[in-house]
Write a structure and sequence with these properties.
By secondary structure, this protein is of the alpha+beta class. It is elongated. The strands form two sheets. A four-stranded antiparallel β-sheet has the order 2-1-5-6, with helices on one face. It has a two-stranded antiparallel ribbon with strand order 3-4. The longest helix has about 50 residues.
Length: about 300
C-alpha cells in the first residue's frame, strides 16, 4: 500500500508520495478542523436564534406603537411568536451543549481533559449566573410542562431629553408567571431565587444566559486552540508538498490517498481544501462576543430632535 497526495479529477496522474504517518496526520487534522468548525456553526445557530427573538420583540413593540388598537387575537398571535422564538433558542442551546460534549469525546476521548474542562465551564456558569440557572430550568419546564410565557407587558417610559422635549420609549417585556411555574415541576430553588430577586423579566434573563454561553464558548476556543493551530498547519502543508514534488500547477480536487502498490487505484481518500479553516476563522471573528448583551441595547431613538417650525 502506498500513501500520497493526488488530485481526484479526471485525467490527473500526479502523485506525491508521503509516509503512512503523514497520511494519518493529515486525515486527523481534517477531521479535527471539521469537528471544531461544526461546533462554531452550532454556536452560530444559537446566536441567530437569539437575534431573531430580539428582532421579534422589537417588531412587536413597533407594531403596537404604530397601529395600536390592541386586541386579544393579535395579542395571542404575538405571544405565540415570542414562544416560538424562545423555544427555538432553548432547543438550539441544548443541541449545542449536548453535541459539543459528543464532539470533544470523538476528538479526544470520553474521559479526556478537554471534555472535562468544557463540562466544568458549563457547571461554573450554572453556579455563578442566575440567568443561566433560570433559563436551564425554563428549558426543562418547556420540554415537559408548558410554554414559556402566556402574556407580555407593553411598557412606555416618558421622559424629557436634553433639549427639554418629552419623549416616550416603547418596549415589551415578556414575563415569567411565577404562580403558573410553581404549579408544575419548575426547579423550586431557582424559582425562589427569582422571586427573591424580583426578576421575572424573560428578556433580561435570556440576555444574561447568552452572555454566559459566550463566556463558555470563548473558554472552549482556548481549550482547543493549540490543536486547531497544529491541524491548520498540517492542512496547509498538503498543497505545498504536492506542488513541490509534481509538475502540477493546480490543487483543485486535492486529497490524501491510499493507493495500490503497483497501480494508482485509490482505496481510501480524504479531500483537503482550505475553505474549512477559512470558514472557521471567519465564524470566530463574526461571533467574537465583544459586547455584553445584558448591558447593550439596540434602539430606534433619534439622536437629533426636530421641532415643528412656528
Amino acid at each position: 500500500m502506498r500513501f500520497g497526495i493526488a488530485r481526484l479529477v479526471l485525467g490527473s496522474s500526479d502523485f506525491a508520495e508521503i509516509s503512512e504517518e503523514d497520511y494519518a496526520r493529515y486525515c486527523k487534522a481534517k477531521l479535527g478542523v471539521i469537528a471544531v468548525l461544526q461546533i462554531e456553526e452550532k454556536m452560530d445557530i444559537v446566536l441567530k436564534n437569539h437575534m431573531e427573538l430580539e428582532e421579534s420583540l422589537l417588531e412587536i413593540a413597533l407594531k403596537d406603537t404604530m397601529f395600536g388598537a390592541f386586541n386579544w387575537h393579535r395579542g395571542r398571535e404575538q405571544v405565540q411568536e415570542i414562544n416560538r422564538r424562545v423555544i427555538n433558542l432553548l432547543s438550539s442551546v441544548r443541541l449545542y451543549r449536548d453535541q459539543v460534549c459528543h464532539d470533544l469525546s470523538q476528538i479526544y476521548g470520553k474521559d479526556s481533559p478537554e471534555r472535562d474542562s468544557f463540562v466544568r465551564l458549563t457547571n461554573d456558569a450554572y453556579d455563578s449566573v442566575l440567568g443561566y440557572r433560570a433559563i436551564e430550568a425554563l428549558r426543562n419546564y418547556v420540554q415537559h410542562r408548558g410554554l414559556p410565557i402566556d402574556t407580555y407587558n407593553p411598557i412606555t417610559h416618558r421622559q424629557e431629553n436634553s433639549e427639554g422635549l418629552r419623549i416616550a420609549r416603547r418596549s415589551i417585556a415578556p414575563k415569567l408567571d411565577f404562580d403558573e411555574l410553581s404549579k408544575h415541576k419548575f426547579k423550586k430553588s431557582v424559582l425562589q431565587e427569582l422571586k427573591s430577586a424580583k426578576n421575572d423579566d424573560l428578556k433580561t434573563l435570556l440576555r444574561s444566559y447568552i452572555d454566559a454561553l459566550g463566556s463558555i464558548h470563548i473558554g472552549l476556543r482556548k481549550i482547543v486552540a493549540e490543536d486547531v493551530g497544529q491541524w491548520e498547519t498540517a492542512l496547509e502543508e498538503v498543497p505545498t508538498r504536492f506542488l513541490d514534488v509534481t509538475e502540477a500547477n493546480a490543487t483543485i480536487g486535492l486529497a490524501v490517498v491510499k493507493a495500490d502498490d503497483k497501480r494508482l487505484i485509490y482505496h481510501d481518500s480524504e479531500q483537503i481544501f482550505g475553505s474549512m479553516a477559512e470558514r472557521l476563522r471567519w465564524l470566530e471573528r463574526k461571533n467574537a462576543f465583544y459586547v455584553s448583551l445584558e448591558s447593550t441595547f439596540v434602539t430606534g431613538e433619534p439622536t437629533v430632535s426636530v421641532r415643528n417650525a412656528g
